[in-house]
Amino acid sequence: MRELTDLTEKTLRREEKFQGRILSVHVDEVLLPNGNTSTREVVEHVDGVAVLPLDERNNVLTVTQYRYVFGKTLLEIPAGKLDPGEDPVTGALRELKEETGAVPDTFLPLGRIIPAPGCYGETLHLFLARGLHMEGQHLDPDEFLNVERIPFSEMVHRCLNGEIEDAKTVAAVLKAKVQLDL
């Protein structure tokens, strides 16, 4: 088997297919490392943030909301999209307060993830929030969700047994498990 030193694919032609509020779709013809060409269907999405909020008893503030694309409700950590030019920390603190009403004393980065690199252009910035103070929730007009406190150990178990399917939630919970050794 021959190993290539440069795996870069070069864009030859781009055809814009859709431009929406938070995403766009284009189809590209690319030159492959071996000299052949192929097609890449790409969804560009604004970057997002997600926060794992842990209270003083090591309960996670979760949100359950209906996800239209999958036709069911999902248990997730608070998350949302970044506004144009918005710093990820600012966006994450905003989303946490809007969705749960929580404001943290301590706010730490858990890194970034790329949810679906095969066709989806989005980076998610993950954070851990501790020392929570509860204030008022401020949901967007089209946002409907329930907030629940779930023990961190139960969240780990649910992630590992496949009960929690949301990638950002699984990643944040397992990263925090390793970093905090809870």
List the helices and strands and how they pair.
Blueprint: E1 10-19, E2 23-31, E3 37-45, E4 48-53, E5 59-67, E6 72-76, E7 79-81, H1 88-100, E8 102-113, E9 120-121, E10 124-134, E11 145-151, H2 152-160, H3 167-180
Parallel strand pairs: 3-9, 4-10
Antiparallel strand pairs: 1-2, 2-3, 4-7, 5-6, 5-11, 8-10
Helix pairs in contact: 2-3
Give a short summary of the structure:
The protein has helices at 88-100, 152-160, 167-180, and strands spanning 10-19, 23-31, 37-45, 48-53, 59-67, 72-76, 79-81, 102-113, 120-121, 124-134, 145-151. With 182 residues, it is of the alpha+beta class.
Largest sheet: 4 strands, mixed
- Output the structural class: alpha+beta
Task: Output the radius of gyration.
Answer: 19 Å
Helix content: 10-25%
**pLDDT < 50 stretches:** none
What's the arrangement of strands in the largest beta sheet?
A: 1-2-3-9
* Residue fraction in strands: over 45%
Query: Secondary-structure element sequence?
Result: EEEEEEEHEEEEHH
Number of helices: 3
Tell me how many strands there are. Answer: 11
Q: State the shape.
A: globular
